Amino acid sequence: MRAYDGFMSDHVSLFADLSFAQVRLLDAVETRLRADAGMETSSFLPLLAVSEHEGARVQDVALALGISVGGASKAVDRLERAGWVKRKSHPTDRRSSTISVTAAGRRALAKGGKAVEAAVDGSVTLAASKRTALQGALAQLRTDLR
Fold first, then answer.
1. Domain that holds residue 92
2. How far apart are CA 72 and CA 67, in angstroms?
3. Domain of 62: which CATH number?
């Protein structure tokens, strides 16, 4: 626990630790993604979401990323312009379309994934068991915060 304005708070400490770690890790990943893969996290994460939910709709991408449908739509538009995804008419809902990763998108995702792995390896010095435990705890937190 740390002192905060005269009182001890695990909650304040948790918030600060998560925030500071996220900022530093995001900076390392952004730098490596740009240098090694020529992309931003604002493209990598939506591309990853589409690859994990092949045939997804924009609403599914928004839910996966925890962003607005409008934000997800803009992200998918960027991916489509880059040639990394393609939209196809939804088979049962004419108002909607499904999104799939193209061959170029799979190559970009592989290149970006290697860049992210390198950035995380260079930034997160936890032992493998602690990294696995942290990943599990963060996955649960992500689920809880939806």
1. 3-144
2. 7
3. 1.10.10.10
